[in-house]
């Protein structure tokens, strides 16, 4: 039976590209092989593609997002979504990231209109308005606390805002009160409570959802699939076996919460090693890059367009994240390209990197411990091949889509 499926996500390629966006696009394309698929997003592309109809609305002003009360309720978008539901009349509504809509009520509206409703959790927005669950973007946070959340949010907003907004501190402290954060959390809990089913791509995220009251019976543990088509024709351009030099690499947007500075600091403990650290990814924080030091072995490779490129040139992926990662795209790509990983022992990362098997885990935020793990590979480069062969690639999107469809049908019945 062909279904009418409405996928809802904050962004959609090519206007927005991130891990969740790539996943939703590939899921939509797989589902569209046999079903009618609609997308509801912010800033929708002007043209629909591959039989997928893309609908949506312009993203609300980011200035409005300074106020916590405007991050979880937005009557204009809520009404637009309600009209979209009537227009599409889907058999099921599948939510993903919704933070850009500046409202948490879209799943509630879907249920009010009588539609089976499911959500895949990609981050911690249901617990934390920054999605990161990091206190002041510096250290992992234990969970929602109104007073702590108010302090963190106001500090984070001021650090991210342009200089002309620096005078807002007193205003933010006045309007972004602990009471407002309590209200936000209650709305988000109600949203998760009313949804028919929740897909958690990691056991860690499933556990976090249960910790705030989501019944475990509602949760489906299904790791994200990956579009193998992105890695068709993958071939190594170089390796340790070519020149005796081990190239470690970071892949992603280099930001403090991704811990790139931990990787560059680790080089101080590896002064005489014949190694290189390549940093691949779009530079959005130039001042942070300047603080990474001047070790000549660090190469800033910058933005890339072919996802295969970094993995064709590195021997080992470094993933020194300081935040609770869920189902990182780069770990799936490293697995597909048979590149071993040295990663932080934090969040869901240990579900994908098995210490001593397909890589090593190190103490989060500890450059010395990271260096010690890098030394293990430097002293025994054969681990590059052994651990690469032990990698566990994710499921391809077509198979993954069949898993998702089984959940749809269970909920619809």
Automatic annotation (TrEMBL):
The answer to whether the entry has keyword Transferase is yes
Which InterPro entries does this one have? Glyco_trans_1, Glyco_trans_4-like_N, Glycosyltransferase_grp1
Which intervals hold domain Glycosyl transferase family?
Answer: 241-390
The answer to keyword Transferase applying to this record is: yes
| Any Pfam family | Glycos_transf_1
The chain positions of domain Glycosyltransferase subfamily 4-like N-terminal read 17-227
| A molecular function (GO) term | glycosyltransferase activity
What the entry lists under CDD domains is as follows: GT4_ExpE7-like
Q: Which keywords appear in this protein's UniProt record, sorted alphabetically?
A: Transferase
> Under which name does UniProt file this protein?
Glycosyl transferase, group 1
Q: What is the lineage of its organism?
A: Archaea, Methanobacteriati, Methanobacteriota, Thermococci, Thermococcales
